[in-house]
Amino acid sequence: MSYTKVSSGPVHVTKIRAASHKDLKPCPGDRPLSPRRLAALKKAILERKFASATWARARCLANNELYRINGKHTATTFADPEVPIPPHAQITLDEYVCDTLDDVSALYGTFDTKESSRTQSEINASFFQDLPGFAGIDTTLRNAMVSAVYLSKNPKNNVHSRLSAVDKAELAMTEMNSLIWILEIAHAVGVKTFNGKCRRVGTLAAMLLTYKADPLTASNFWLSVAKGDGSQDPDHATRRAERYLLTASRSARNPDVAKLGKSYFIEAERMCGTLILLFNRFQEGSNRGVIYRSTSEFPKATSTS
To answer: Which one, of 6, 272, 10, 31, lies nearest residue 167 by Cα?
Structure first.
């Protein structure tokens, strides 16, 4: 039993090609379409932010059937009459030959996002590979952003997530504009510099929540914090936030799991809440220091408008 890739290369996307790929015979065990994923892809295409995608299909020699292996969501989206195909839109088309139907299933398993056999990181990569700016993103940053979206929606219940890995990835796709903004901040200050201070779930969740409250002020605040080039006053809110993040960077490796008894650990919820309070002080022009306690009500990011 085996499968062999016989060709791979770029092809232009057309309505006919998308519909043809969408309507190919599904593999055994093919998962249902994800409405969240379809919505995120449609939004990216309509906003001219679609980057690329990989479609895969395989001919099974045992029954001479052609099966769709990968690309169901992008093909379905492009086939939608309401979705215009951007000029010069391309995908990579991989074609395989499989000896048996079992080989088709095995090949599909290398693309599929089944929770039983894939890690959260692999699932995140699979979901985000077709979206703008995410194809070559740092794996740790991408995974942290996915967790940060969940934390931003459930700040008081972030340690023991009840969502499946696939549900987490799908939930993150509903916040594409905010996540793209985070990537823009990272590239503006330099990814290495950004990761050194801000690549933690609590920080990224605070970025998401402050951006939703006041995009312009959030950009000014986080650029200053990440660059470290803000006010010379050590008590200024941006300087306090920067020091807080530099201290937090020495904490536990996994920011999603509270390691009680470790004095250096700052859990994601507390970090997120503290940074939101500092952002609010920045809005107010106040230099007063703040620390969020997990026993307190979770703060809301304020807006100047």
So the answer is: 31
| Residue found by looking up tokens 């994923």 in the block | 37
**Tens digits of per-residue pLDDT, 153-198?**
888 765 445 677 778 888 888 888 899 899 999 999 998 889 888 9
Q: How do residues 90-129 score in pLDDT, each as one tens digit?
A: 899 999 999 999 999 989 888 765 544 467 787 777 777 7
Output the six-digit token pair for 198.
């801000």
Q: Radius of gyration (Cα) for the chain, nearest Å? A: 22
89 Ramachandran zone, left/alpha/beta (phi>0; psi -120 to 50): beta
The rounded distance, in Å, linking the Cα atoms of 272 and 112 is 33
Task: Give the integer Cα–Cα distance in Å for 53 and 74.
Answer: 7
Q: Which two three-digit tokens encode residue 200?
A: 């933690």
Q: Please, where are the H alpha helices in the chain? A: 15-22, 35-46, 72-79, 101-111, 120-128, 139-153, 165-173, 176-189, 191-198, 201-213, 215-227, 237-248, 268-284
Kindly state the tokens that stand for 20.
Answer: 């043809």
114 to each of 68, 120, 124, 206, 305, how far by Cα in Å? Answer: 17, 10, 12, 30, 44
- Distance (Å, rounded) from C-alpha 120 to C-alpha 15? 33
Return the SS3 of 30. coil
Contact criterion met (CB below 8 Å) for 72 and 29: no
